[in-house]
Amino acid sequence: MKNTMVLAFVFTAAHLYAQSAQKVAEISYKRLSGYGSSIAETTMVLKNAQGATNRRKMRIAKLEGDEGDKSLITFLFPNDIKGTKLLSDERIGKDDKQWLYLPALNRIKRISSRNKSGSFMGSEFSYEDIASQHYRNYRYQGDARKITRNGKTYFKIIRIPKDIHSGYSRQVVYIDPKTYLAQSGEYYDRHGRLLKKVSFLKYRKMDGIDRIVKIEMYNVQNGKRTLLTWDKEKIHAGLKASDFSKRVLR
Amino acid sequence: MKWVWILWMGVGFLHGVEFKNEIGLSSVSYDHSRHDIQCMGNSELTYTRDHMEGKVHLSYLYSREYSKQRYLYLDEFYMKKDMGDYRIEAGKRILYWGELEGYNITDIFNTKNYLKDPFDTSAKLGSWSLSLYRYIENNVIEAGIKFYEDDQNLGESQTPYYPLPLPYDSALHTQKNRYTPSFYLSYGWSSDTEIESENRIILWHGYDAKRDIVSVSPRRLSQYAYQVNKALFLSHVLYGDTILKVEGSYTDVIDYPSMSDYWQVGIGAEQGISDLRGMDLTFYAEYYTYGYGKKHRHEEVDISEIYNNDLFLACKMDLNDVGGSTLKAGMLYDLKHGEKIFKAQVHTRIMDRFILEMEVLRFLRVQGTLLGRMDDSSRISVDIHYTF
Which CATH class is domain A19-249? Predict the structure, then answer.
């Protein structure tokens, strides 16, 4: 009996110590959730391997949903694409719906959301990188292992996109075990080669919710990097589903 | 004019007002016509407050060599107001009715801006009009009136790509008064089943976007607008990662014997390939045709319709570099006459605010067709634009 209790304690302790990767991902996702809706102004700085830089500015409106978020991205800078809008209706387990509004033509154009691996505005972020990183969009390999990198401890989780059209074969994400906030990650291309390194550089707390402030995406294959910064953000912004219908595009 | 500029600059300080401006310089070479330097641009002012938006858009072009190609147009000047499930828009507006990329059969609302570029069907002039929209979830019912038919300036016989055999008088001749309104009723709906689609039907009564060409004096030609009843259909279907598109129309010509009833159909497919060595590629294939509903056909009306039994093949390559560079190349192949139009464009952004563009246009034409009547078969242009 004593031996059985010791064994049960050891198994329980081991289980507690090694949480499942999915559970860690779920907690991490929920730390950033609960904002209802948000409006943010963002800046993206693109830098090529030679050091040349270009800027993009966007206004991003988002609405949380159980079956996927809705988002409306309005491009503000450079001026030649000012007023261009991208409306996305994310549907977990299905293809998302996406429309692009081209102000020069006054045209709303449906776009195929299957090209998720395509570059977003010429940056190192792909369309799937800027979509919500909902934990249900991935399968997870085993437990979240605690590892030490550069003197810091992280949960290391390995997630595999469920979407067969994803540009990634797997993603390794390093999560702070105290805050459950992702700190960095390595994304592997369809051939299993390391493609990008992502650094979640800064978070801020708003009404008890952690919100990302700065992300850098570094493409190890072409040497280009993009820094995405949320300059201003308002959460619980009072947006409704009707603020994300096609009619708002024009 | 001074007060217009003072007003323009003054409203910039108002809350909810946004400006968007572009000014450009273009060097254009033709194989026969004189080399030209053009200055062009546009200015846009948008005012947004609560559920209301107003917009003013001006565009201009100054050609050094071709005085008849110069213009300053007030393209858009309208207000729109959202009221729950309703929206009302009134003023001088440009609407886009289309699905296809190369040529839109159903894009009939506005007059084309032929002076900007006769081969760019997206260049349009605003039309004084009013529309009321009723939104029902993802569907929309729309009713509208176009109040006025605009003149279309084609330049003069010395202007490159002038299409007519005689000098042209831009004053439009109409079957009824040019203030006789045109009406439309539209219903757009989407299907969200196994195969997703978005569809639209438009019923039109009023002046046709096609025009007859009539002789107004022994040595001058002019456009003639006749009245029609028209049914338009637009749709796209998502099939896997391919977007299939269709545009069609049937036109019943009212009491104008020179023109018989006619139909038009365009079909197309768009296929994208992303992340190909860091680039995104999109391929387009489209086919357009039209026919006449009655035996007699008015050949001169064909002049407003070069897209008959034509195949359009094009490719767009986004390089995804810091300059947002794109390469576009396309061919319009007239299967009936064997004519081909090739067009290639390069576009890149420098230091965020400058846009550098280069375009090459080339025809392989045959005698006796519309293209065969034009002086030039090649055009190369290099443009630089500044946006602020």
Answer: mainly beta
